[in-house]
């Protein structure tokens, strides 16, 4: 049996942050008198990088220092809203302990700023489970490009084909597939039919374990 690794996206995978990102964006867009809708959030916010989100909603290209300034403002709103609400996707701590007990390497690979990742990992007290943590500042190309997952595999000294990815968004699942990894869809933000085809799908981590990952891997490569 090959040595396996597990790489987690963050928003919607480690913690169900999307409702709080929506609250932050609502306050942010109201300030700038930018129209938005729940449907637009579904298509153009969840799982997307801020450069894409701002460009879509402002209806013009947002880059450089303007992007950094707007991102600092919006993400500051999110962290203020979320810091007292943070909680993991159900049964994630049990799964992380199972991975640790079996010496499975783990990482976080998110399109979110590192400050958001730091907040969540520290408030949930799970940072010590991960040997690699990458945020938006650590890559040049964002999901669905596979860079963040390939860098994570390199950090973990793992063959990408031996890595499992847990993702909840179309762009994130696509990034994992583009990295030639084994992708598990987390149905916290989207329905199964809204995502590319994954190796498996979960609502939470209740029935997820190293034994299940090994079984899925053997079925996939067998």
From TrEMBL:
Cofactor(s) it depends on: Mg(2+)
Family annotation (InterPro entries): Beta-PGM-like, HAD-like_sf, HAD-SF_hydro_IA, HAD_2, HAD_sf, PGP-like_dom2
Keyword annotations: Carbohydrate metabolism, Magnesium, Metal-binding
Top-level taxon in the UniProt lineage: Bacteria
One Pfam match: HAD_2
Any GO MF annotation of the entry: catalytic activity
NCBIfam families attached to this UniProt entry: HAD-SF-IA-v1, HAD-SF-IA-v3
Family according to the record: Belongs to the HAD-like hydrolase superfamily. CbbY/CbbZ/Gph/YieH family.
Protein name: Phosphatase
Taxonomic classification: Bacteria, Pseudomonadati, Bacteroidota, Sphingobacteriia, Sphingobacteriales
């Amino acid at each position: 049996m090959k040595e396996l690794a597990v790489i987690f996206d963050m928003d919607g995978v480690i913690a169900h942050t999307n409702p709080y990102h929506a609250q932050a964006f609502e306050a942010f867009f109201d300030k700038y008198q930018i129209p938005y809708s729940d449907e637009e959030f579904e298509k153009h916010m969840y799982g997307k990088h801020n450069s894409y989100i701002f460009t879509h909603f402002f209806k013009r290209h947002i880059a450089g220092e303007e992007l950094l300034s707007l991102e600092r403002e919006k993400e500051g709103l999110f962290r203020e809203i979320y810091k007292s609400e943070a909680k993991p996707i159900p049964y994630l701590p049990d799964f992380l302990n199972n991975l640790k007990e079996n010496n499975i390497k783990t990482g976080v690979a998110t399109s979110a700023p590192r400050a958001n990742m730091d907040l969540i990992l520290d408030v949930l007290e799970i940072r010590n489970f991960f040997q690699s943590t990458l945020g938006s500042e650590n890559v040049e190309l964002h999901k669905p490009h596979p860079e963040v997952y390939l860098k994570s595999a390199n950090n973990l000294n793992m063959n990408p084909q031996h890595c499992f990815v847990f993702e909840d968004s179309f762009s994130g699942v696509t990034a994992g597939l583009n990295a030639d990894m084994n992708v598990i869809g987390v149905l916290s933000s989207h329905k199964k039919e809204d995502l590319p085809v994954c190796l498996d799908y979960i609502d939470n981590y209740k029935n997820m374990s190293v034994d299940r990952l090994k079984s899925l891997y053997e079925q996939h490569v067998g």
